[in-house]
C-alpha cells in the first residue's frame, strides 16, 4: 500500500494506519486504513474516485484492492476510532481426507478431522465466550503481553450453516460449510480468534465439553490451553470494521 501511494508523488512520505492486524495466512474481505496525503503547492486534493483508481493501478500485481475511499476529519484513526471488528471462520465438514477439499476452497477453510461436528454442543460452549472476560488462556505470550490487558468483551458468537464457493458443483458429495462469526471492539493480538475456534471445534469433536470453555477462561493461563487445539489461519477472514 505504501509503495503504491508513493506513486502519487506526495510532498511527505505516506504512512498507512491499518485498523486490524492479522496472522500470516489470514484473509480480509474488508479492512480499513487511513493516510494523509500532502500534495505540492497549487495541486488540488485527490477526489475519492481518482484515489481509488490510482492506488489500484499500482496494486495490480498484489492480491489486494481498494474498494472505497472517504475524506475524514483529522481526528479520525482507522484503528482507534473503530467501534467493533467482525471475523468469520469457515469450517468444512464431511471430509475424511484433506484431498477431498474442493480445489476452489483450498486455503480458504478448515476441514477438521473426525467427520461431522456436534454443532449444538459448540453453540452451547460459545455462550461462555460472550461478554467481558480475561482471555489470558486464549492468547499467546509475546513481547507485547506485559503491556496489553487480556480483558476483552465479545459481543457476538454465531455458528451457522453457509454455502461454499461454487458449492452447487459438489453438493452431492455431502460436504457441509459452516461459519463461526465473532464480533468485538478489539481482539487480543495474535491468535485469540483462532484459539476460540479451535476450542469450540474440540467441543464439537467430543474432546472437550462446553463447561471446559468456562474453565479455560477461569484459569487465565495460556499454558492451560489444550495442545494442538488452535485452528489454522486459512479459514479466518476479517469480515468488516465498523465505525
TrEMBL record:
It is an enzyme of class 5 (isomerase). Residues 126-243 form the Pseudouridine synthase I TruA alpha/beta domain. Coiled coil: none annotated. The active site is at 23 (nucleophile). It catalyses: uridine(38/39/40) in tRNA = pseudouridine(38/39/40) in tRNA. It holds the Pfam family PseudoU_synth_1. Substrate binds at residue 87. PANTHER family: PSEUDOURIDYLATE SYNTHASE, TRNA PSEUDOURIDINE SYNTHASE-LIKE 1. Belongs to the tRNA pseudouridine synthase TruA family. This is tRNA pseudouridine synthase. It comes from Casuarius casuarius (Southern cassowary).
